[in-house]
Amino acid sequence: MGVTKEQVEASLTSKLNPVHLEVIDTSGGCGASFAVEIVSEEFEGKRLLERHRMVNAALEEEMKEIHALSIKKAQTPQQWNPTPQDSPTTATTSTTDA
Amino acid sequence: MALRSIKTPSVTPTAAVSSSVINKPQSHRFVSKPSASLAVHNLHQPISITRSNLLPKLKPSSPAAKFRCSASAALTPQLRDTLEKLVNSEKVVLFMKGTRDFPMCGFSNTVVQILKNLNVPFEDVNILENEMLRQGLKEYSNWPTFPQLYIGGEFFGGCDITLEAFQSGELQEVVERAICS
């Protein structure tokens, strides 16, 4: 029984359309506990609590079997990768290059 | 605390058994006389009665069913009332597994340590001691797991959010605002 990492990934991918997603099974194999890092446009303009609620809602079915879900990161693409990829709009003097 | 009042489940037994008895001969009659419109009419009638009787019959057993996670049945209006009083009983209320002195879960322990570190007075409520409270609170907060931290009567978050807010300094601000209000 339990939920697989793939199930969690599939649900999050289909519902939140993430640009970055990392699901780690922290249960030691029984599928009852996961850690999630997720970056999605859908989080734009939402507080952390709302973002977590979105993740919880996306995993509503899985949560019936998951004992613990740790959301390590729930960010917008901008927060996750602050350096603009090729948008000329921002003239920030960033020291990091892509 | 007001916890005691929600310990008594409201069990309302219904006459579901008798209605299912009524239902059987009806459907039997339908089979023997398929053309009679009266029989069809009678068939529909008992079915709807049976359904409405079945629902309240199933409900009382659900708070006791430990692994029932789906929403709807756990949060009665009375329970909602009690929870509202409970989350407002202190400026900071932590619903957790175990107690502040004996946390029964690592996530609960993390939040206890954070609150202790901030030197915040808080009320700890052990949700392992009351299954109705545990299920009802999931719905009330619209949050599937524990711990659940309430600040100023508002749901603040679970372990991850509390930890992140603690690290960013936001938690301290929110707590101070709530305590001073």
Automatic annotation (TrEMBL), chain A:
Region (Disordered): 74-98
A Pfam family this chain is assigned to: BolA
Gene3D superfamilies in the record: BolA-like
InterPro entries: BOL2, BolA, BolA-like_sf
Ranges of biased composition (kind: Low complexity): 83-98
Signal sequence residues: none
GO biological process, one term: protein maturation
One Gene Ontology term of the molecular function aspect: iron-sulfur cluster binding
Family recorded in the similarity comment: Belongs to the BolA/IbaG family.
Record's protein name: BolA-like protein
Species per Swiss-Prot/TrEMBL record: Brassica campestris (Field mustard)
Lineage of the species this protein comes from: Eukaryota, Viridiplantae, Streptophyta, Embryophyta, Tracheophyta
From TrEMBL, chain B:
SUPFAM superfamilies (alphabetical): Thioredoxin-like
A GO term for molecular function: metal ion binding
Keyword Iron-sulfur in annotation: yes
All copies of domain Glutaredoxin, residue ranges: 92-155
A family per Pfam: Glutaredoxin
Keywords, sorted A to Z: 2Fe-2S, Iron, Iron-sulfur, Metal-binding, Redox-active center
InterPro entries assigned: Glutaredoxin, GRX_PICOT-like, Monothiol_GRX-rel, Thioredoxin-like_sf
NCBIfam families for this protein: Grx4 family monothiol glutaredoxin (TIGR00365)
Protein family according to the UniProt entry: Belongs to the glutaredoxin family. CGFS subfamily.
Protein name: Glutaredoxin domain-containing protein
Organism of this sequence: Brassica campestris
